[in-house]
Amino acid sequence: xxxxxxxxxxxxxxVLTLSASGRADTLVADLSQxxxxxxxxxxxxxxxxxxxxxxxxxxxxxTRGPERPAVMHRKSRILGVWVxxxxxxxxxxxxxxxxxxxRPLEEIAPATVLARHEMGVEHLRLELARAKASPNxxxxxxxxxxxxxxxxxxxxxxxxxxxxLGNRLFRTRISLPANVPTGTYQVQVFLIVDGxxxxxxxxxxxxxxxxxxxxxxxxxxKQPAIYGLIAIALALMAGWLAHLAFRxx
Amino acid sequence: MQIxxxxxxxxxxxxxxxxMGGGVGFLSGLFGVGGxxxxxxxxxxxxxxxxxxxxxxxxxxxxxxxxxVLAHWRRGNVDFKMGFVLLLGGFAGSTLGxxxxxxxxxxxxxxxVISLSYVVFLGIIGALMFLEGLRTMRRRKxxxxxxxxxxxxxxxxxxxxxxxxxxxxxxISALMPLSIGFLVxxxxxxxGVGGxxxxxxxxxxxxxxxxxxxxxxxxxxxIFVTANVTFLQAxxxxxxxxxxxxxxxxxxxxxxQFGARxxxxxxxxxxxxxxxLMVLAVCAKLFYDLLITPADLYSLGITR
Lengths: 249, 304
Hints:
The complex is a heterodimer of chains A (249) and B (304).
Chain A: H1 2-20, E1 27-31, E2 35-38, E3 45-53, E4 58-64, E5 67-78, E6 81-94, E7 97-101, H2 105-108, H3 111-116, H4 135-151, E8 160-161, E9 163-165, E10 169-176, E11 183-193, E12 196-209, H5 212-222, H6 224-247
Parallel strand pairs in A: 2-12, 7-8
Antiparallel strand pairs in A: 1-3, 3-10, 4-7, 4-11, 5-6, 9-10, 11-12
Chain B: E1 2-5, E2 10-13, H1 14-31, H2 36-45, H3 50-74, H4 80-107, H5 110-142, E3 162-165, E4 170-173, H6 175-191, H7 196-207, H8 211-237, H9 242-263, H10 268-291, E5 298-300
């Protein structure tokens, strides 16, 4: 408990001195770590976000993974068997989306504001490459995409809490699952007063494979031929060792 | 204890992987099969992407075939000449298979093709094995077995390019083993199996090889075909996870030893019927999954 308190209080003091040192920021926030390393034992991670605001207001924190294209398939029944029969590509899709707020979103701001800042998965702007589909069909594909990401644990299904300590200090936890995609994440912090965004700040968070995992992954992609040969050599050796180990038994 | 698999990009319990390796290894030792046809569906079932499951399983089969073939070699149960002809076909077939695999993956149809191949081939082989096992069990009870001819002469023996295979006591056209090797090679690349469950019956019933050399020769050519699949999958699709392969084969090697010991106590026909039932169960499960309405009609394709 006391260690957690120290971990929280020390950066807090830094934040306070920062905001007291004459800067006109109404919102200051930072992360407990800026690099999440995926190691051999990686089973997900939690990053602490903490900050301070001037005056009253609500805080919304959005964590977005690097954007990538996404291919979606839709199944239909052919001769009794379910087959992928249609596919569409979304050009830019955040590979991760998490959100936290100090109060329920609909109490903080009107829907137009939530939509403008993409607050909540229902407001994520996921555009199709071209208008290949009528709006209601496009919405079905979009919902399908969101469901798939939610099933994979990459889009949040609920809004986490941002907790205030007193009137000025706040904190929240960003939890990243074990299958989290790598790349540079953007953590956006919004201060909302009377339904309007009065201040915003973006902090990068880097997620990358480190150590042995990174070596194996990079090697597999950069030197695929040598990787393949090593994989075969390892298997041949393992098979031979197994033969030697059990020959006498 | 969790371990992060760098290529599959997921975190899995180490003991689950060792247990799966051990369990499938035990069954493969018991029945004398490679176990790829069990392991690949299992990997897909625990959430490994199908492409990674197929590529990685090929890598693991290289290891289990090596340890298997060395034992058969010591007993002189490998027909190298036949093995070479089979693997020539197998090389061509598995290369085509990997190309086909990449193409189907782009189309978003690879999962369907993997499942359908399993259903069709496991269904046929399982049913044949089951009937054959039952028939021999019944025959053993009723009457003494009649002497079989060494092999029957059919149109197959009229094909050109005849070769003599001394170890197998055969004088047949090289086209037959070449095309069998080719077909099994294609399936090996797409299904992530060694293909022994198709190769072995094909060698016995289509080529007429003596049963004593069938398993050793099949294992011998499987090493090369799965090594080719491993290389090509790693090269073209980056879907070979060495960490996953090493975890699985550690369990499999140990499990296979216990399986082989347990198998020595059971009758051949009973084993065959049991194996057939297991094959049919896997087939039925995969077929059922194709027929039921999926929970979500929409799914994510490859995003690279």
